[in-house]
Amino acid sequence: MVALSGVDLRLAEGDFLTLFGPNGAGKTTLIRILATLMRPTAGRVLIGGLDVAECTAQVRKLIGVVSHQTFLYRDLTAEENLLLYARLYDVPDPKAEVRKALERVALGHRAGDPVRTLSRGMQQRVSIARAVLHDPAILLLDEPYNGLDQHAAANLTGILQEMALRGRTVLMTTHDLEQGLALSKRVAILSAGRLAYEERAAGLTAASFRALYMDVVEGRA
Fold first, then answer.
1. Residue 121: enclosing H or E segment and its boundaries?
2. Using N-to-C axis directions, what is the helix angle for 78-88 and 120-132, rounded to 10°?
3. Could you tell me what percent of the chain has a pLDDT over 90?
4. Element (H or E) spanning 94, and its range?
5. Distance CA 74, CA 126 (A)
6. Are residues 95 and 87 in contact, defined by beta-carbon separation less than 8 angstroms?
7. Closest Cα to residue 107, out of 147, 78, 141, 150?
8. 207 in a domain, yes or no?
9. CATH of the domain at 162
């Protein structure tokens, strides 16, 4: 079974692209390949001019990843987890930056709690703090709003808007058409492993894009 086929996707520095598509379209596979967590059987991936397959360690320093897995150690505290990643990323003044990252996701008061004692939504917030801790040039997010309450979702939106304003490159997958459209500079639709649509978000309304999305995924466009 082929998960992705002929996907040609280019993001410029400072771009914000939201990728939509039904379950099974290949969105998570694409994020995992870009995040160096999977290797494609064919094709080539370049991030920051570096070949992902040949320069994996260097690429990982450029990216932050939020996915279905939190990549957190359950028996370590939230603070201990972030300190570990801060050292891996050579973050200067790691203790101060970790505290700042946890406050950024409104979890400073739970810094000393083991991750296993946190709710799924709180673990997702720690995962977001982990992803932005080293101020990555590129942020990859696979359904990052899953499990977040209204306040935490608004907090994440603020973080993404701030990163976009600072010229960071963002690639996000989501099922929320309105939210993705509102945040993005560009939108794309992945269907059955193929890039079926790509366009600038400016000028698209939620209603028109929803109708277009349904036409694409149902094979009418």
1. helix 120-132
2. 20
3. 93
4. helix 94-104
5. 11
6. no
7. 78
8. yes
9. 3.40.50.300
